[in-house]
Amino acid sequence: MDISEIAVREFVEVAPDDRLGQIQSLFDRDAPRGVVVVDDGEVQGVIGERDLIRSRVEEDTKAAALAKSAPAVDRDEDVREVARVLVEGGVKIAPVYEGESLYGVVTADAILEAVLDNLDAITVGDISTDEPITIHEDAHVGQAINRLREHGISRLPVLDEDGDLSGILTTHDIVDFVVRDDERQGRGDRSGDLDRMLDIPVYDMMSAPVITAAPEETVEDAVRRMLEEDVAGLVVTGDAATDVAGVVTKTDVLRALTFTEEETLDVQITNVELVDGISREEIRESIAQVAEKYQEMTVVHAHVRFHEHKEKLRGTPLLQAQIRLRTSHGQVAGSGEGYGADHAFHVALDKLERNVLELKGVVADERYRGQLLRKLGGL
Fold this sequence. Notes:
Elements: E1 11-14, H1 20-30, E2 34-39, E3 42-48, H2 49-53, E4 73-74, H3 79-89, E5 93-98, E6 101-107, H4 108-114, H5 124-127, E7 129-130, E8 135-136, H6 141-151, E9 155-159, E10 165-170, H7 171-185, H8 193-198, E11 212-213, H9 219-229, E12 233-237, E13 244-249, H10 250-256, E14 267-270, H11 280-292, E15 299-313, E16 316-327, E17 330-339, H12 341-357, H13 367-376
Parallel strand pairs: 1-2, 4-5, 8-9, 11-12, 14-15
Antiparallel strand pairs: 2-3, 5-6, 7-13, 9-10, 12-13, 15-16, 16-17
């Protein structure tokens, strides 16, 4: 399946110097799927409606300040490849070209809607993230923000004093609170307001009740719920409705669309622009070598994420690398920090290998692989 019927022309083209206040009025008037920032005929980035609505920047701020770099795709590109570039680019919208001309945009939601009927053979448990990062409801919002940033995630299941699920806190909840606070207090002196917000208990900012999914239900049902409820992810519950067993997001589903039957290991890289000093092929081969040491473990998919810290050493940034493998033994991950992508990746790789060792002896379960590949093979 290609994206020729998914790409739409409902977008607005703006210049980098256009004010965000003007762009917001275009959204209100034309209800486009997104904004494409173009400078002298070259696409500079994209702005999604949610990014614009939830932004705290002043109306006089220029579009270039909010635009996100996004990979351009051809109108007849395969849906799997488009899903890949959206995930690796960390965006939910991409500009679409017909030949050399800008045709329109394609969104993550449009892709998910188009492939819904092909997701009934995959269960939520097949693609969800196990052992998710959580936070207790009496923790401060500042702690939650640090946890979100440290792990490169956008949502935290919130637990009560008994360890039961009581709510969900997302980056959108935090931004919404700040925006409402801005509107309530006006545009006067905000000195000290941020510190007070960071001290607010998570309980006061979380959303409840939580929209959940069961491990055994189909991804099709889970995605329909995300689209209907306008949320980007669901908490996966265990035997009891208050047991947190995992998290499944739209990004997890997009990533599942990139699974292939190729003999070479499929590796996906988020924030690929940070990769310097090491190639994608070197990353793939290094992960494959770890996997091949333990032949009873089949790796279905590998995801590598790089995150840049502010610290530098002789001009080389401090990076965090996270490697997550989806295997026949379940999910296994490793993370580490280093100066430059090569250093950070190999620190994470060492941690990954130690964690893989802990999986030895676990009973393999590849029941979903054939179903998944057969169903997605028709896309």
